[in-house]
UniProtKB/TrEMBL annotation:
The keyword Cell inner membrane does not apply. Residues 152-229 form the Signal transduction histidine kinase internal region domain. It comes from Chryseobacterium kwangjuense. Its EC number is 2.7.13.3. InterPro entries: Bact_2-comp_sensor_kinase (IPR050640), Sig_transdc_His_kin_internal (IPR010559). One of its GO terms (molecular function) is protein histidine kinase activity. This is Sensor histidine kinase. The keyword Hydrolase does not apply. Keywords: Kinase, Membrane, Transferase, Transmembrane, Transmembrane helix. The chain crosses the membrane at residues 12-30, 36-56, 77-98, 104-126.
Amino acid sequence: MQQQKINISPAIIWISSLFLGILSSVPQLASHEFNWREAVVNSAITAAFSIIMWYLNIYLFNRNAGKRKQDISYSRLLMILAFGMVIMFGLAWIQQLILSHINFGPVMLMVEVRGILINLVCYMFLTLLQNNYAGQQVQLELEKVKSDNLGAQYELLKQQVNPHFLFNSLNTLKSMAETNDSETVDFIIKLSDFYRFTLESRKLDLITVQEEMKIIEAYLFLQKARFGDGISFTNGLKPGDLKTLIPPFTMQLLVENCIKHNIVSQSKPLHIKIYSSEDKIIIENPIQRKITTEESLGVGLDNIKMRFSHLLEQEIEIHSDEKIFQIKLPLIHEYYHH
C-alpha cells in the first residue's frame, strides 16, 4: 500500500505563517517602548521562517511517502530541527543587519527557541495528518475488501439451487410420463419456466413481488404434481404489494422451507399463506414438524437474512408460537443497492 502524499493548501501555509509572525510581535505591542520597525522585522522573520519550514517539512514527508511506517521518525525530526536552527540563525543574522542596535546574543537565543517551537508544531501537525491519511487509506482498502467479499458471497447466494428439488421434480416427471398423466406437458412447461426464472433472476438484485409470485406459482404447480391436495396456498397480497420489490427467490425459498420442514400429506395438508400487514409481507404456515427432516444445504433463512442484510441493511422478523410459523419481510418501495 503506497502512502498518499501530503498536500497542504498554500493559503493555509501563508495565512498560518502570517498569523505566527503577528503573534510573535504581541509582547512588543504590550511593551511601553514599542518600536514598529522592530515589530515588523520580527514578524517578517518569523513568518518567513514558518513558510520555509512548512515547505521543508512537506518535502521531507513526501519524499518518504512510500514507507509504511507511521510512527514518529526521530532521525527525521532531528534533521528537520537541525535544518531549522541553521535557517533561523541565517534569518536572525539578517535581522541583526537590519536592526544593528539590537544585542545579537539574547535575540539569537530567543529566535532559535521560537524556531524550534514552530518547527515542532509543523512536524507534529504533518505527522498527524500523514497518519490520518494512512489510516483513511487502510480503512478504504478494508471496506473495499469487505465489499468485494460480501459481493462474492451474495453472488454465491443467488446461485444456490437445491439439487434435491431438481431430483424430486425429475422423479415426479418420470412417474407422470409412465402413467400417461394428462398434465405431463404442463409439468414440463412449468419446470422449464421455473428454471428460466432462476437463470434470469440471478442477474438481478431485486425484482417485483409480482415477478416473484410467478416463480412461486410455477414452483407450487410442480409441488402439487408431487403432493396433490397435500398442499394448499392462499395469496392475500394487495395490488399495491405486487409493485414493491424483493430479492429474487426470497419467498420461493421460504415456501420451499415450509414444505421441507413440515409434514405434507393428503391426511394432513399443509396450508401456506402469503399476505401483507403493517408494511410487511408475511409468509405463514402451521407447524407440522416432520419426525425426520430433509438434509439442508444452507439454502433458506440464512440465505435470506444475508441477502436482506447485504442489499438493504434490514432484518427479517421470525415469529413462532409452536402452532403457527411466520416470517415477515420488509416491503421495499424503491430500489436500493449498497
